Amino acid sequence: MKSKIWLSSPHMSGNELPYIQDAFDSNWVAPLGPNVNGFEKDLQAYIKEDRHVAALASGTSALHLSLILLDVKQGDEVICQSKTFSASANPIVYQGATPVFVDSERDTWNICPIQLEIAIKDRIEKGTKPKAIIAVHLYGMPYKVDEVNAVASKYNIAVIEDSAESLGSYYKGKNCGTFGDFSVLSFNGNKIITTSGGGALVTKTIELKEKAIFLATQARDNAPHYLHSQIGYNYRMSNIVAGIGRGQMTVLDSHVEKRRSNYKFYVESFKNNDKIVFLKEPENYISNRWLSCILLDTKETREGLRLALEQENIESRPLWKPMHQQPVFKKYPSYLNGVSDHLFEKGLCLPSGSNLTDQELERVITTVNNYFRTC
Ligand SMILES: Cc1ncc(COP(=O)(O)O)c(C=O)c1O
């Protein structure tokens, strides 16, 4: 059996170990400590805008806290991009609220501003104004920030920017992770940098960051005994995990560079294959190319290619199945234009890790070329 080529695997630099060692040496083995503060500062410095970062246990917990901070509760509706990973939508249901799914547009594969406005108008007509909009920079490609924000502010609805896949991407010169009323980062094992598991909430004010940390540490009121006047959560990042994050921050830019160069390599290698189409960056968009994605001419070609790669022990994955098609979310309202269904049928994510070797990339290219020679 040939060695496994993964879609996107963790890529440690070695710079993580001194921070972890330091946590052990100083006995900061807790969901607080100098690495947590340091990692938050590193992230704040990286995203540059005037924002505040709270390091948390996961991107999902950051999404959940942002909904709580926006007072989303039972009976509320929250709009969510349908073409995303389920973690974008799950916390809406944790809150007892109703997700309303909105389809994508073709330029970025992200939430369609036209469908978004249609959905908002219709929900208002039906009697419930949505409380928030969750927009996602999927696969690292920024969504149409100006257009989405224009609709959101026209109807005075908060935006939660799901930037789990897009740390290191830019829209009109500004970092993804700075465009929402709340923004969410993920450091899950497959992300552009990883802490094994972890996430962060980006807020516009220090007060909101403090409120998030309060909720993330069991909502303990200020008293010598344990005193609680609100429901709390155990969502804070540990000092050991944050140490991995500090080390990973030293290689974030090089990870982005490598993932972008994987994408360029695929584009160059398949330039004469008219059955393979790539998503180009619109002007003033820079994607971190977290995953290199292709569209094939038919669903059969996509599945045939996926199986051919699997035979060679190469992991690939269909573009995410939209939420409105998921058994668990089917019953909720959706506003569709066919784009995300089309992308799911014909799209495939290719191995994209920042630790892929030239030989591994060559193996992917050879397998794809062999498939097209024989199919
Ligand atoms: C788009 C998107 N949103 C949210 C998440 C949730 O992040 P986490 O796995 O850190 O909870 C992920 C990744 O897993 C994701 O890809």
Q: Features of this protein?
A:
single chain, 375 residues, alpha/beta, eight-stranded mixed sheet, 15% strand, binds pyridoxal-5'-phosphate
What can you tell me about this protein's structure?
The protein has 375 residues and is an alpha/beta fold. It has helices at residues 16-25, 34-47, 59-69, 90-94, 113-125, 145-154, 206-216, 239-249, 252-269, 299-311, 339-346, 358-374; strands at 52-56, 77-81, 98-102, 132-136, 158-162, 170-171, 174-175, 182-186, 199-203, 277-278, 285-286, 292-295, 317-318, 334-335, 347-350. The radius of gyration is 21 Å and the shape is globular. The protein binds pyridoxal-5'-phosphate. Pyridoxal-5'-phosphate binds at residues 58-60, 84-85, 87-88, 136, 162, 164-165, 186, 188, 199.
